[in-house]
Amino acid sequence: METLLHEACKVPGEDSSSVLDKSSVVKVSESTTGDALVICNGSREETERCLEVKDGAISNGTVFNMQPSDAPIDIRFEDISFTATEGGILQRKSKKLILHDVNGRFPSGQLIAIMGPSGAGKSTLLNVLSGYSIQGVGGKVYINGNPRKLKAFRKLSCYITQDDRLQPLLTVNENMHIAADLKLSSSVSQKQKQVIIDEILNTLSLSHTKATRASGLSGGQKKRLSIALELVNNPLVMFLDEPTTGLDSSSCKQCLELLKVLARQGRTIVCTIHQPSAKLFEIFDQVYVLAKGRCLYQGGTERMVSFFRDVGFPCPEFHNPADYVIELASEEYGPEKIDTMVTKSENGKSLTYFQYPEKLLKTGSTGSAIFEDDSGELQATSKLNQLRVLMRRGYIKLKRDQTMTYMRIGVNIITALMLGTLYLNAGTDGSKVLDNYNLLFSILMHHTFTPMMLTILTFPTELSILIKEHFNRWYSLKMYYVSVTLIDLPLSIFCCFIFTTIVYYMTAQPLEIVRFSMFFVSSALVVFVAESFGLVVGAYFSVVNGTFLGPILTVPMMMFAGFGVSLKDLPTYLYWGSYVSYLRFGLEGVVGAIFGLNRQTLDCPEEQYCHYKYPKKFLEDIAVKPDQFGNDVIALVLFWFILRIGAFVVLKYKLHSLR
Ligand SMILES: Nc1ncnc2c1ncn2[C@@H]1O[C@H](COP(=O)(O)OP(=O)(O)OP(=O)(O)O)[C@@H](O)[C@H]1O
Q1: In the predicted model, what is the mean pLDDT of residues 649-659?
Q2: Is the CB of residue 192 less than 8 Å from the CB of residue 36?
Q3: Which of 82, 123, 242, 289 has most ligand 1 atoms within 8 Å of its beta carbon, as the pocket-test mutant?
Q4: Angle in degrees, 0-180, between the axes of helices 433-471 and 477-506, rounded to the nearest 10
Q5: Which of 100, 247, 444, 620 is a Cys-bridge partner for 251, taking CB atoms 3.0 to 4.6 Å apart?
Q6: Which structural domain range is residue 429 located in?
Q7: ipTM
Q8: Whose CA is nearest to atom 7 of ligand 1?
Q9: Do 93 and 141 fall into the same domain?
């Protein structure tokens, strides 16, 4: 590590470790020689001071902060209403008004709490202000006095959900690098990214957990990592839904103090919080109290007690004002008190209780290109880069995933060995043709249920991460979807190949390369189709509903496959079913591979009756045409594509409907 004071910024008489100050501005740029980074600090009034860092290393654990490079953001909202639509697909829809024309001001550089009892509408207001909710929203949001342009605003803000939606298999450092590679422009070098990551991890006291997987972090560390990931692109506005939920009191304090530091650097930080202790309450600069979707109080934390006095409900001595306001908002002292307070606060219009109301009134329209820029892509990097980074992340996850990788390979080997033992040498035995046919169907069942159920069970977890990352503009849905499709393909092929090889060999199927290839291709296509079907179900339904619906919806596929009831015995009015059953084409493919291609008469052991020793007769009886392999492949590929596109449409609809 070689750390030198940058000559141009050098402050005589000071040693390098004292140069960078925690509360100062920091800029990161390339040195003039191009082989080092120059990191400068200094408040607006001070002269800049810089450190030069080589090989991505920062001097002796120095802590420093990033200050947003753009102008601060003041949020003002007027007459915000939110109407939720209730009722399922087949139910009558009803409307429910949740926010009742609330108003408010969230100034920059402040840590703001949205408080209120459960069900008051805190999360709903946060969703509306962040732009997450777009349907059923009324009223206006202004950014620095100008009407909010949603796309431009989303580029400057981030939303941190209540539950920590992290990639559990990736380490803290890997999670941060993925975020940096997706959220920072490709022109930022890896060295610069490393400096930014180190700085954020230092500030959030996560440096010592760099090599720990996210699944191994404590609740507080997970929360801080969630914040760290969104800090990578230095947002001006941060919305946090209940950041203290599930944390002990010291972690809560640490988390809120950290948010306050970030706010002081010029960000607007808004979080919902349930009922903070007096100590936590003091950390906030401003509170916005909601009750039944209306604003009870808006202003400085320290001025809330005088508000209670002015409104005629003085806060009892030694009572935590945060507890008292929740008691009032929960109607513990009568419902009329809420009306009185809503009237006094003018449903959020009154600025009387702000720390510096006169400053707020002066805040006019400060136009800036970045607030107006509603054009271009939401994501910071190209589609190709998004795909590359997502593939890299997918590969790391695949390497470490016990369920999706190791269990899947294990299940394929074990099932293949079990079937191989059960139907040992059935492939050449003329007396065991029906057993062999049962085996082929069992193989297809395995290829249907294993990938389908795995996808249904695991995708909903991925979906919650996708919703967060997609909203925070990490990547486009298309690139995410392409990466999911591509990353799984090699493993699916590998598992199918191992399975097919073991079963094929143990059950003594004809050892001909053409037959084996046909068998493998049909099996692999059934796997792809079943996986895609699982994705459609997993993308729309919860794990519970998906686990129920996936197998249920597969039953008709089995019925129409031509196995239990042969296709020639299917009633004509039900024959259409055989065209929508992908298993029919899979079965035709594997049966054709084993019994088609003019297969010779099968061996018949002595003293045994071999009803089906002539494969042609068997094929006639089960009504399977052995020469349809090409059509079977085309049909299965079509099913695969249609279901993949279907899953994408469902996913897009799901993301849209949630908003
Ligand atoms: N999409 C929706 N459909 C129906 N009702 C909704 C919807 N969204 C919110 N609500 C209702 O609106 C009210 C406010 O919900 P919200 O989640 O904003 O409350 P909250 O103050 O954040 O509560 P908590 O602190 O318990 O999270 C609740 O009664 C909730 O049931």
Answers
A1: 87
A2: no
A3: 123
A4: 160
A5: 247
A6: 401-658
A7: 0.95
A8: 84
A9: yes
Give me the number of domains the chain comprises. Answer: 3
**Strand pairing partners for 489?**
none
| Any domain includes 542 | yes
- Among residues 271, 655, 283, the alpha carbon closest in space to that of 472 is found at 655
CA distances from 525 to 448, 576, 579 (A): 10, 21, 16
pLDDT exceeds 80 at position 523? yes
Let me know whether 18 and 56 are in one domain.
yes
Crossing angle for the helix pair 513-540 and 582-595, to the nearest 10 degrees: 170
Conformation bin of residue 180: beta by default, left when phi > 0, alpha when psi is -120 to 50? alpha
Question: Is residue 487 located within the same domain as residue 410?
Answer: yes
CA-CA distance, 126 to 386, in Å (whole number)?
28
Here the CATH number for the domain that contains residue 333 is 3.40.50.300
Residue 233 scores a pLDDT above 90: no
pTM for the model: 0.78
Sequence-distant (≥ 6) Cβ neighbours of residue 332 within 8 angstroms: none
288 and 406 belong to one structural domain: no
- Decide if 306 is inside a domain: yes
Residue 559 above 60 pLDDT?
yes
pLDDT exceeds 80 at position 637? yes
Residue nearest to atom 27 of ligand 1 (CA): 118
Closest CA to 302 of 318, 287, 317: 287
Q: Name the residue of 97, 99, 124, 658 to mutate for ligand 1: max ligand atoms within 8 A of Cβ.
A: 124
How many whole angstroms separate alpha carbon 191 and alpha carbon 196?
9
> Which residue would you say has higher pLDDT here, 53 or 171?
171
Q: Is residue 181 part of a domain?
A: no
